[in-house]
Amino acid sequence: MLKRLAPALIALVAGPALAADLPSTKAAPVFVPPVVAYDWTGLYIGADVGGAWAEGRYSSLPGSVSVNGDSILGGGFIGYNKQYGQFVLGLEGDVQGLGIDKTVGVLRVQQNLLAAINGRLGVAFDRILVYAIGGVGFSDTKFWNNGPSYTDSDVGFDIGGGVEYAYLPDWTLRAEYRYYDFGKTNKTTLAGANFGFEKTDNTVRVGVAYKFGVPAAIPVVAKY
């Protein structure tokens, strides 16, 4: 009886030990590519189109008169961004053409140009950039008061904000609002009467930009 059980007992005891000595056959590790974030750093150039709403106010004793107009707006811009973590700093210049020409009574206002040199501060959410923009604005506004023309203040400030989306590595789309204020210009008519003229602009525009030199992607370290 013992002779019959001996081989079975030996196999039961020695089996696990022999199996432990066999080479391991673990599955090969699965490669997971690193997640990368879009980098907004670089020089860019673009074009935009939209609308402009001008508000002018002529004031003299005994009251004031508003001369408001609107126009299609279009132009181009160029700038440079530098990304620091999630924040993006930039410098941008733009020139816009428009065709505001409005007459109220003996008053007339004409404007064909808007331009600006601005700083930009944005927060990047990968391919989406939410930004504020502001700086020095320029205009070519002229106004008439029953005869000769006068030049409005050509320099003021502008401020606004927008959203930009990188739909390709080197192409972006944007939507932006901008407010311009050129202050108050004080003049004297040929008859010797003093008057003032105040001018502001509100603009809304959409644009497309090309970013030169696609930089290397920034790796994002996944946390587990």
UniProtKB/TrEMBL annotation:
Keywords: Cell outer membrane, Membrane, Signal. SUPFAM superfamilies: OMPA-like (SSF56925). It comes from the Bacteria. One of its GO terms (cellular component) is cell outer membrane. It is found in: Cell outer membrane. Its main location: membrane. Residues 29-212 form the Outer membrane protein beta-barrel domain. InterPro entries: Beta-barrel_OMP, OMP-like, OMP/PagP_B-barrel. Belongs to the Omp25/RopB family. This is Outer membrane protein beta-barrel domain-containing protein. It comes from Rhodoblastus sphagnicola.
